[in-house]
Amino acid sequence: MTGLSAVEKAVSEAKELVAQELKRLGSRALASVERPRQREQGDLAFACFAAAKELSRNSKELAEKMAAEITPRLGEEFARCEAVNGFVNFFFSEGLLDSAVSEALKQGPKYGSGTEGNGKTVTIDYSSPNVGKPLHVGHIRSTILGDSIKRLLRLRGYNAIGSNYLCEAGTQVAMLLVGLRKYGATNIRDEKELVDYYVRINKEIEGNPELKEEVRTALEGMEDGDAQVEKELKRVRELSLAPLEKNYELLGVSFEEEIFDSSLSLPAKAAAAEAVKKGIAFKDKNGETVADLEHYGLPNLVILRSNGTTLYSTRDLALADWRWKKHGFDKCIYVTGSDQNAHFRQFFKILEILGRPYSKRLQHVGYGLISLPEGKFSTRKGRIVFLSDLLDDATQEAKNEILARRQKTEERTGEEYSEKEMNKAAAAVGVGATKFAFLRVGADKNIVFDTKRVVSFEGDTGAYVQYTLVRCRNILHKAGELKPALKGGMQEEERRLARTLADYPLTMKAAARSLAPHSVCDYLLKLCADFSSFYESCPVLKAETKQAAVRRLALVKTTATVLENGLEILGIVAPKKM
Ligand code: ARG
User: Fold this and answer.
1) Which DSSP letter does residue 386 get?
2) Residue 78 contacts residue 12 (beta carbons within 8 Å)
3) Domains in the chain: how many in total?
4) Are residues 402 and 366 in the same domain?
5) Are residues 473 and 535 in the same domain?
6) 491 and 409, same structural domain?
7) How many angstroms is it from 312 CA to the middle of ligand 1?
8) Is 383 helix (H, G, I), strand (E, B) or coil?
9) Whose CA is nearest to atom 6 of ligand 1?
10) pLDDT in tens, 399-411
11) Average pLDDT of 271-277?
12) Residues 426 and 533 in one domain
């Protein structure tokens, strides 16, 4: 492992200086440093407000005093430290920027990695679709977000396990089975047809108690291993799993384990029985078994139907036990839509009351919902965009864009682009732009999904990041024998770029801690903007001196490395040409 990066060492150094100063002043405030948003505020900052309050002092004066005391003790990592409006701001020295850039050059794909996760296991439940329903845009968010969180955690040393929980034991699948029976559907070509049947039975079941009863019986059959139901289920599974695999392949997403909820019926029943025995759950007047969560400030939760069959919630109890037994995780993360927030709070609470030793290690990441400009997605109402169609559209759009650009380049350079290369690039850009569009948005925010905007190459898109990387590679290619080397002092735009490059390991550390791939996107966009201004004002291969040329080349190479590493964390492939 690489240990601490130069910048991480500088962070500890700044913390140490602040801590010493706080101690001298008699404050017990936390010596934490943040990374300011505005560049003028330096590279690291300590906010004096808590300490000022504790010591009954004016924060502005306290910051000035601290900065004055710290200044003579600054190590070579820092150029200076200043007090501004109650903050002590630290500025990295050029030496530190040099070390960070050399480190990146040396580490290559390892740059940005960390060790804080070493020896820790995290399971991540993502994608976890319902069998019998094709992946649609509503699922893409969990799939992409979870995959990126896994990559982030791995980068920082965690043993991160992607776990796909395939749900087929629920009412939806039972309804589908009943529908297929009723409509005599023997010849189903693909998963999309399954949706048509699902939509149809859904409409018909409203106000039809007989059909509802048949669904209940099908659910019982699933849990009791009824041969006929099993056969029907197997068929639905076969129809939907192959296309699912294909979608994962297109997205470049994989899992370390797969588990079907139907395998959990028995342990789920046992968990429900345990809850009753421990007095946590009771049978209500309708014969349903309900977990009593009211005096924990949560709504009660049904864990067994009156016919004794399990529910989504019951099976989640058993799933958590299963994962704990298998992995002994340090953390178990679930990535789903925030419409399930209550469900997770409820079953986490039940596990806590049941005394599960791991209950505090469970964490739910609920993301905002995705809607179309015309309204919410709903499989039931047939308002869905299939993932495969979406990616096809995006790829086609990307191809048009590339074609237009290539024409210009080919006229200029005479360089040809084969059909095969073109298709490969279009797929990389189309899928990449789609993924980026989803990852860019913080998990808590909703997304109104507008296909046109997602694949647009204008503005803050994944295509822009990919394009910047292709530009860097072109420069490196043209540089031929010229070797990148950090020599001489930097110009303002170079320093600005170097600072952003140096910040990469800190960004990744923070993003992993808060499970936030969107901050990786923000970072990459900022890096591209900095690179762009650097490239405008600092010619590389036509630099005024050879020293400047090799130095700038080092910055280009590092930018390429960081863009590659960052895109890898988002699960986005960069094409060779665009
Ligand atoms: N299959 C569920 C859905 O599509 C998501 C499952 C999430 N994972 C879990 N352990 N509950 O809504």
Assistant:
1) B
2) no
3) 3
4) no
5) yes
6) yes
7) 8
8) strand
9) 128
10) 888 888 777 776 6
11) 97
12) yes
